[in-house]
Amino acid sequence: MSHGARVIRTGVSSGGPAAPPAATASSSAGSDAELMDGAYFRSCAGMLKVAQMISLLVGFISVNNSPWTDYSAYSYFQIVTMCNLVMILFFYIIHIFRIYRKLTCVRWPLAEFLHYLIGTILLLIASIVAASKSYNLTGLVAGATFGFLATILCVLSIWSSYKVSCITQSTNASV
């Protein structure tokens, strides 16, 4: 009687303590079988992305439904908010469907960090320009305010993605 070779996946490196084999095998099989990551919806990073998307959408709608006095300033604001919204939605889908596990040729934490860095700078500039050219029109002021709120939320994402990508890499390098 020949028994086939079994491979047990563990979540730790060879230098660390091993988890019980039955618990590790069942948890990795269950996580690979699921299509969506339900825990990401409730995680801090997932809720932060949803809050960013909502604030960007509200800012875009507020500016879009207001009478404009300076076309170039608000068209720039709309372009920046929509581009940021699409990119945040892209990264949200990447995390929900665990695409980062299948496309390992891309360094997802670094890509997300660079997106947030560039997008936050552009969003801050767009919000400052929108606030300075609002002329006390309520829709334009609301759009600029939600732009600043989205900027603050993006700064939080920059800090958390920096913490994940750079600090954990330096910790792993020293081990």
Report on the structure:
The protein is mainly alpha-helical and 175 residues long. The chain is built from seven helices and no strands. It has helices spanning 21-33, 38-42, 44-64, 71-96, 99-102, 108-132, 138-174.
How would you classify the helix and strand content by structural class? mainly alpha
DSSP strand (E) fraction?
under 5%
Report the total helices: 7
Shape call: elongated
Average predicted local confidence, pLDDT:
82
Radius of gyration: 22 Å
- Total strands: 0
Run of helices and strands? HHHHHHH
Describe the biggest sheet?
none
Give the N-terminus to C-terminus distance in angstroms: 43 Å
Percent range of helical residues:
over 70%
Low-confidence stretches: 7-30
Question: What's the gist of this structure?
Answer:
Helices cover 75% and strands 0% of the residues. By secondary structure, it is mainly alpha-helical.
Please give a handful of descriptors for the protein shown:
single chain; 175 residues; mainly alpha; 7 helices
Write the layout of secondary structure elements.
Blueprint: H1 21-33, H2 38-42, H3 44-64, H4 71-96, H5 99-102, H6 108-132, H7 138-174
Helix pairs in contact: 3-4, 3-7, 4-6, 6-7
